[in-house]
Every structure is written in structure tokens, then in C-alpha cells.
Write a structure and sequence with these properties.
- The chain is of the alpha/beta class.
- It has one domain: Rossmann fold, CATH 3.40.50.300.
- It contains eight helices and five strands.
- Strands 2-3-1-4-5 form a five-stranded parallel sheet, sandwiched between helices.
- The longest helix has 24 residues.
- It is globular and about 40 Å long.
- The chain starts with a strand and ends with a helix.
- Bound molecules: adenosine monophosphate.
- The site of adenosine monophosphate has 17 residues, from helix 2 and helix 3.
- It catalyses: AMP + ATP = 2 ADP.
Amino acid sequence: MRLLIMGPQGVGKGTQAALLAEHYGIPAISTGDIFRYNIKNKTELGLEALKYTDKGELVPDELTNKIVKDRLAMDDAKNGWLLDGYPRNASQVVALDGMLAELGTPLDKVVALDADHDVLMERIAKRAAEQGRSDDTPEAIAKRLATYAKETAPLLDTYRSRGQLVAIDGVGDIDEIQANIVEALDR
Ligand code: AMP
């Protein structure tokens, strides 16, 4: 199973990604987590990414595409994967198409989670209070949501027109949402 999970910040993507990865026995690959790991360990990649992540801006495509390409080439990704937080703009879609063609492995489905603005703001504020992520400042949050609306949301139409989109309501009980996703994917 090769999947993408898409949706605005605060919609519960990470939580659902982890559950889906367990359900299908595939690795959940989060570009945000890869950047955060590198930032924490002060690697060269981390220092470069930090210039953008802290402001709520996208890390340049060249850098992001490369880490995804390298990650998909790893052994544990041979039989499937779930990408969380990638692609985030049209040029990353083109890059991913290229990687898939090179690997000779088509994408199965794109899970899109959505919730209305107030629910998202509430969840993000809660996470900010609990985890203290350095990119959870009000300015960075607003910027991330705006970037999502402008650059990432239009990609849903791309995948819908390819017949790959599975749109699921991201409001409600975690297990119920998970069951809805799995039911739609297995249909
Ligand atoms: P996330 O945890 O997915 O919200 O990602 C945290 C931050 O990492 C984002 O605000 C971006 O700065 C960066 N990032 C994650 N994924 C991508 C991507 N596909 N393209 C560019 N930047 C990304």
C-alpha cells in the first residue's frame, strides 16, 4: 500500500498516519518529523531547514524532494509507505511522480482529512500548550494555514481528477475516523 495523507495543520494527520501505518504494516514517513529530528540534532540539513520551519514557511523543494527520494529508497519502504506532509505544492507533486515512475511503483490512494477553521485553531493551540513546538507561535501558525490554503489545498483537485482522492471528515473520535479511512481504502 502506497499512500499520502493530506490536510491542514491540526487536523490530526500525524495521529491517523501512525494508526494507518500500523494497520497496513508500512512506515509512516513525515517530512516534518525528519526536519524536526535534524533540527534537534543540529545537522547541516537541520540548520538549513530551521531558517524556514520557524517562520512557518516551506523548506525549499530541492532539499525536501531529496530527503523524500532518499527515504523511499530505504529497505523498509520496499513494500509500501505512507507519506505525511508531502507533497505540499505542485512542484513536489511533479517530483513525487518522477520518483514513483523511477521506482516503478504507483501511488494507491490519497487520504484527505478536513475540519473547519475553528476546530483547527483550537487543536493547534492545545498542541502548542502541551508540546511547546518552536514553530507553534501565532504568526507561524497563521502562516502555515495560509500556505496550506494557497499551495497545498489545490493539490486535492489534482488527486481527485486522478481518481485517487479519499476525503474523510477529520472531526470526531480518533478510532472512528481511523475506521472510516480504512473502510474507504479497502472499498
Ligand atoms: P509539519 O510537521 O508537516 O507541519 O512540518 C513542519 C514544517 O516542516 C513545515 O512548516 C515546513 O516548514 C517543513 N515541511 C514539512 N514538510 C514539508 C514539505 N513537504 N515541503 C516543504 N516544507 C516542509
